[in-house]
Amino acid sequence: MAIVGHFKDLDEAQKLVQSVLLKGVVQEVYEEGQLLHMLPVTVIDSKSIKYNREKTLPGAAFYDIHEQIPWSADVDYATQVEASLKRVVTQDILDNFMLKTYKDPNDYRSIVLSELRKGVMRTIEDKLIYGDDSTYPKEFDGLNELVDGTHAGGAKQIIDQGGAAAPLTVANLRKLIDLVKPKPDILLMTRTMRNTLSAAAWEKGLVLANAQPVGTISYAKDEFGARVEYFDGVRIVVSDYLVNEADNTGKKSAASGMCSIYAIRFGQIQDGGLCLVVGGETGGVDFFKMTELEALEDYDAAGIRLTAYCGLALGSTKALAKIESIDEDGVIAG
Q1: Which of these, 201, 229, 205, 204, lies nearest to 215 by C-alpha position?
Q2: Which of 95, 107, 212, 237 has a CA 20 to 30 Å removed from the CA of 228?
Q3: Residue whose C-alpha is closest to residue 161's, from 245, 218, 241
Q4: Residue 293 in 3-state DSSP?
Q5: Residue 153: how many CB atoms within 10 A of its CB?
Q6: What is the DSSP string of 126-138?
Q7: Other CB atoms closer than 10 Å to residue 319's CB: what's the count?
């Protein structure tokens, strides 16, 4: 037994010692690939916004001197598209006992508000990719649904890589870029997929006879000095919100080792880009409307609620494309 002077043992000595509690909560959840701060914003004052896409443009012909020129009527539009606002809400109780006593050194209200805000933002980020209005009508459609022509009112912009034993090919990655007109702003992919692609570009090479590393990936610095990666001039964005997906569906599947890569062009609806639609007080300075309830019935507590009205709108189907069913751990081929 250790001798601790006056005290019987260490446990007795520690009864006279109090630990110091640091203010706040240390961040432990780190996630990259947030789309919210990248998306342009369209503010509306109704529950939804409708818009038309081109389908058939007018033609022209060549005519000789004095030849009669006929009138033509050959323009029509694709199925009208509607992007609706959906309400996302989170709320929590501020117990008065905690509110009045939990002050040194922490501000109980500030901690609850901060964690509520972070939690609802993570929910929105997830739905920006995997939201499904058809299955869950209270959600808005995310990237996985919008890229499917059935939901977006146009042709599918999907390349099927082939399934669990089908690693990414550079040829398909270039085809993906070509599907987005005139050119995508980002390639959204998992961290594992980015690392696999980077390895093929720099140290491992492609699966070809006598293949050597090829410089398909380049690097630059963003406005904050952080390193940014590019494939053929298109910025690579790693998303921790992209997860394992089922074959040929793009829907979450924890048992699968497959993933998707998205090519995205941002922009306002009228410019044919992908944007965030917001309404109500969501369209103001703050993304959330915060409501404080001073007294909750049957509780010795106050309440705090965060509400946002938002949705995702795809102007042109040519602003979004994806490769699905990729074996993200596979060796990349040419």
Answers
A1: 201
A2: 212
A3: 245
A4: strand
A5: 18
A6: HHHHH--TTTSTT
A7: 28
- pTM for the whole structure: 0.86
> What is the spatial distance between Cα 303 and Cα 91, in angstroms, rounded to a whole number?
7
CA atoms of 235 and 228, how far apart (whole Å): 7
Cis bond upstream, residue 182 (ω within 30): yes
Average pLDDT over the chain reads: 85
Q: Fill in the amino acid letter for 109.
A: R
- Residue 115 phi, psi dihedral angles, 5° rounding: -75, -35
Average pLDDT for 108-129: 90
The identity of residue 276, as a single letter, is L
Cβ count near 310 (within 10 Å): 23
How is the chain split into domains, by residue range?
A: 41-50+79-327
Name the H helices within the chain: 10-14, 96-101, 108-130, 143-146, 149-152, 170-179, 191-202
- Give me the mean pLDDT over the 174-183 stretch: 94
How many C-beta atoms lie closer than 10 Å to residue 279's C-beta?
21
Q: How far apart are CA 169 and CA 3, in angstroms?
A: 67
- CA dist 199 to 194, 203, 205, 213, Å? 9, 5, 7, 8
Whether cis (ω within 30° of 0) applies to the bond prior to 58 is no
What CATH class is the domain 41-50+79-327?
A: alpha beta
**Per-residue model confidence as pLDDT tens digits over 29-84:** 888 888 998 999 999 999 999 998 888 888 899 999 999 999 988 888 777 889 99
Taking 90 as the threshold, does the pLDDT of residue 132 lie above it?
yes
Q: What are the E-state strand segments in the chain? A: 41-44, 48-51, 54-56, 76-77, 81-84, 86-95, 158-160, 186-189, 217-221, 227-231, 234-238, 258-264, 274-279, 289-293, 301-314, 320-327
Q: What would the pLDDT profile of 237-294 be if each residue is shown by its tens digit? A: 999 999 988 888 888 887 777 899 999 999 999 999 999 999 877 766 678 888 888 8
